[in-house]
Design brief:
The protein is built from eleven helices and 14 strands.
């Protein structure tokens, strides 16, 4: 059995039926959000039977859902063979008048586990198991909207796994997410986050869609970055920043430098000066994220004073910076924490 959304509509095997049947099937999936092929009553019975025999419509189901006081919600998805991945639904901050803004960002996963072993992250604590398929990526969005009744406006490939290590599946999922016949989410509302795979960043720069790039920097120098991000040994900052500069030159879009601040590890003022230098070179903005505690890891978040000082130094050195007061502390919102609890309890 195959997942239907691992293929684009023109690849679906519907048997000997007119071409417009593909449009009808697409409507059932993306407009009506059908739960079963049997519901697709304007398709011939033989076609529905063929689809049911050859394809799986929904590749995942909710294993657990946690909600936060700030309405951030986290989903643990159960896949085939008892694999688990996570998504996090994040509401926009309140608007000027203090009312909840009607926009939602979904952080999606691209792999079961992660092979890159960033020292502060829960996703890779049990290693890498496999890549997700396009259907498993897209289904996180469809099933989140089904479970919550909200429209997801922005997609961030920043959940479990390294998106650029699952390049082909991520690109196909983006085609489905972005297309007018699919989820119809604009490319500028899709962000791919990477730990720093320089060759794939260059490859991404040559893609036609105008999606956004976020680099998980987490260190202004090779010495600091290599301590917490093993990928830096393969792609040190000089090579990585050159790849990002190529991306920026091709796309002409502001990229983001994600920087998780860890107390006593990467929060020295000297690192802030280097981060500002990198950001100015790349015309990037810096997102500072105070560390979100992960059970089993020794790291802690810096004091608010340290966080504010780090941000001020970046700003004073001419770069744009935002301090992200992240949501969802009470629901283990850091990537991989909910999955670890589930697999260690079963």
């Amino acid at each position: 059995m195959k997942f239907l959304l691992d293929q684009l509509p023109e690849e679906w095997d519907l048997g000997d039926v007119p071409a417009y049947r593909r449009d009808q099937l697409r409507d059932w999936i993306f407009e009506h959000r059908s739960d079963a092929f049997e519901e697709m009553t304007n398709l011939p019975a033989a076609t529905r039977h063929k689809l049911s025999a050859e394809y799986i419509l929904h590749p995942l189901k909710i294993a657990r859902q946690q909600g936060s006081h700030d309405t951030t919600r986290k989903f643990l998805w159960q896949l085939a063979e008892n694999d688990f991945v996570e998504s996090v639904l994040i509401p926009a901050s309140p608007n000027f008048y203090g009312e909840r803004a009607d926009r939602f960002t979904l952080c999606v996963s691209t792999q079961v586990g992660c092979a890159y072993g960033c020292k502060f992250c829960a996703s890779g604590l049990d290693g890498w198991k496999r890549n997700l398929s396009p259907a498993e990526i897209v289904a996180q969005i469809i099933e989140t909207e089904r479970a919550t009744g909200v429209k997801v406006n922005n997609i961030v490939f920043m959940g479990m796994g390294e998106p650029l290590a699952n390049y082909d599946a991520v690109m196909k999922s983006i085609e489905i997410i972005n297309s007018h016949w699919g989820l119809n989410i604009g490319a500028r509302h899709i962000t791919i986050s990477t730990s720093g795979l320089a060759p794939q960043i260059r490859q991404l720069a040559d893609e036609p869609r105008q999606f956004r790039l976020a680099l998980s920097l987490h260190g202004g120098s090779d010495k600091v970055r290599a301590k917490i991000m093993p990928v830096n040994k393969k792609y040190p900052l000089a090579e990585l920043l050159d790849a990002c500069a190529y991306y920026q030159e091709k796309k002409r879009k502001m990229m983001a430098l994600e920087y998780i601040l860890i107390d006593g590890i990467n929060d020295d003022p000297s690192e802030a000066i280097l981060v500002a230098r990198h950001a100015k070179r790349l015309h990037a903005k810096v997102n500072l994220i105070p560390y979100n505690k992960v059970e089993g890891l020794p790291w802690t978040r810096p004091s608010e004073e340290k966080v504010n000082l780090f941000g001020k130094i970046i700003l004073d050195h001419g770069a744009r910076v935002t301090i992200r007061r992240e949501k969802g502390h009470d629901i283990d919102a850091a990537c991989g924490q909910l999955r670890l609890k589930e697999i260690h309890q079963t």
